[in-house]
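Subject: sequence -> structure tokens, single chain

Hey, anyone have a minute? Need the predicted structure for the following. Not urgent.
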Amino acid sequence: MSRTATINRKTGETDVSLTLGLDGTGTCNVSTGVGFLDHMLELFAKHGLFDLDVQATGDTHVDGHHTTEDVGICLGRAIHEAVGDKVGIRRYGHWSLPMEETLVTVAVDLSGRAWYVPKYEFASPKIGEFDTELVDVFWQAVAANGLMNLHQLLHHGSNSHHVAEALFKGTARALRMAVEIDPRQTGVPSSKGTLTG
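Reply:
Had a minute. Here:
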């Protein structure tokens, strides 16, 4: 079974086409018009071993907010669709990731219920032209539309680029674990028998 999904979303602010393959090799082809977001998505694909294609246009002449949020919406929906009925998956994933002076821990539960807990701050308001507050906007959109619990904790770190990078890599690794097929799991990993909410 191919665990892939394609999400298309067009609004008055953005036009996003995103394809995600959960059982890939980390192949990535992204163009969002937001350079730092492209960089983070490439890291996400590489460390999650997800095949990811994202083509987006948006009102980047205003700022990167709408494009970043809408790509997050599409990624969350793609994760939810691609994982399917969740039979046989591990469901939970967690990862602690060091990035030079930075250390983050990420935990995820593909529970069918959305909850996002960000415990991090950035030392600077921008990374190049990218507003650091958009990291939170992106992951909030992923968690809400992926119907997952997502907790991201910064233990320490002073370089904003490193913090953002560690969050994206750590979340990719945690999701990679959560979507993996567990050979011992014969059904849905829930005593309720469903993970749809």
